[in-house]
Amino acid sequence: xxxxxxxxxxxxxxxxxxxxxxxxxxxxxxxxxxxxxxxxxxxxxxxxxxxxxxxxxxxxxxxxxxxxxxxxxxxxxxxxxxxxxxxxxxxxxxxxxxxxxxxxxxxxxxxxxxxxxxxxxxxxxxxxxxxxxxxxxxxxxxxxxxxxxxxxxxxxxxxxxxxxxxxxxxxxxxxxxxxxxxxxxxxxxxxxxxxxxxxxxxxxxxxxxxxxxxxxxxxxxxxxxxxxxxxxxxxxxxxxxxxxxxxxxxxxxxxxxxxxxxxxxxxxxxxxxxxxxxxxxxxxxxxxxxxxxxxxxxxxxxxxxxxxxxxxxxxxxxxxxxxxxxxxxxxxxxxxxxxxxxxxxxxxxxxxxxxxxxxxxxxxxxxxxxxxxxxxxxxxxxxxxxxxxxxxxxxxxxxxxxxxxxxxxxxxxxxxxxxxxxxxxxxxxxxxxxxxxxxxxxxxxxxxxxxxxxxxxxxxxxxxxxxxxxxxxxxxxxxxxxxxxxxxxxxxxxxxxxxxxxxxxxxxxxxxxxxxxxxx
Length: 520
Hints:
The protein is an alpha+beta fold and 520 residues long. The protein folds into 2 domains: 4-28 and 323-514, no CATH class; 33-314, Fucose-specific lectin (Neuraminidase, 6 Propeller), CATH 2.120.10.70. 30% of the residues lie in helices and 33% in strands. The strands form 7 sheets. Strands 9, 10, 11, 12 and 13 form a 5-stranded antiparallel beta sheet that branches. The chain has a 4-stranded antiparallel beta sheet with strand order 1-2-3-4, with no helix packed on it. The chain has helices at residues 4-32, 320-359, 375-400, 414-437, 442-447, 460-469, 471-474, 480-489, 496-501; strands at 35-45, 48-57, 64-70, 76-80, 88-92, 95-99, 103-108, 111-117, 126-129, 135-141, 144-151, 154-155, 159-163, 168-176, 179-187, 192-198, 203-210, 217-222, 225-230, 240-247, 259-263, 275-281, 284-290, 295-301, 311-313, 449-453, 503-507. The longest helix has 40 residues, at 320-359.
């Protein structure tokens, strides 16, 4: 029989556990529907910038596009959202031309005033307006990059800009000094950017630059350079956005610095850079970097590559509930962890008594008469302590940027080894002072266990140090099997760290005189 106080606590603990599970499921559901794909496209128009931002959430078939018009200070002047699958935008006086896969629409004052089908077999991938006011559109079809040019209100017949092999990514067009239009593209699956300029009769390739494949990257024609930026995984920091720079060899100019950095105060889920875009504007270069839930725009000088302050811009295509879910996710994880600790305080202790009174066999007692802790008891205490450490570990991983880009653990990745070392450090920083000062951790206190020397005295500095230095070998992740094996074969259920430190874990949940051996 149990007391009425225990029954009330059990009901309260069950309610908290159910709420925690509900919050965890809701957080996982909302987290799945955070944007997993996000890409910017920058275009310069005089002192202004056009930014076409494309997102696609997990579970959505269609892309959503937002159009931001930024002034010289990179502050949004106008914002259009829910533009469907808009591929590019150009300014034409007081009008804005939006290009979709096979049609275009003209906006004035945020309202559509006209539009038409383009009557072509290929989809528009990029668009630009040259200094004379002509609009150029580009796309890919059957191994060729094609373009059409609009002078007045009519588009010309399609023409070939370049021959390519396979699919093309990061196709972009820009007004260029010395030529009406420059074209930049990258073959899918490679890190090679190529550039071509319009000579008056055709596009002439003039430069190429290589960056690591598989990383977010962008390139643009900056004066005589073909300049590329890439976000490398090993360059991630918590408070700075670091980008590597690369330049073509054909320009003959001095190479740029190795990297350019912007302040990056981002503390939301989805810190991985998902897309980059560059656009040259006279003596500066504009940059846009996107993540799952944020968009950052900035500038740096084209001569010395000195960055100007970057701005964080709210993504127009992003619903507020997604950002709210991202911000609440760590709090829900903490709530879930601490509620389970409370659940363990009220329920696991009763389960322990049941096992001791009905199932456990007689064990050797410690010299002071205490019973050595059962393996089940120590496992429950370890689980409770582990749930306390996990939220701290994940927060530290984000702050130190140790998280790999994929969910699969690759032990050849230095970040995986750093994560293991970080967890071992956090584990030692928690267990060592707790056992040195109090003889127990929070989990051991909940279950009713204490660490002491074999004679019952305090564990001491050396004992606590040796015991917890060896914890990584016999009580960390899968290596816990080593500790369990030693506890099964030693008389007082001591793991390797206990044997080396001369310590033992005893049950102190009941007064000593209340203990009596179970009948054989």
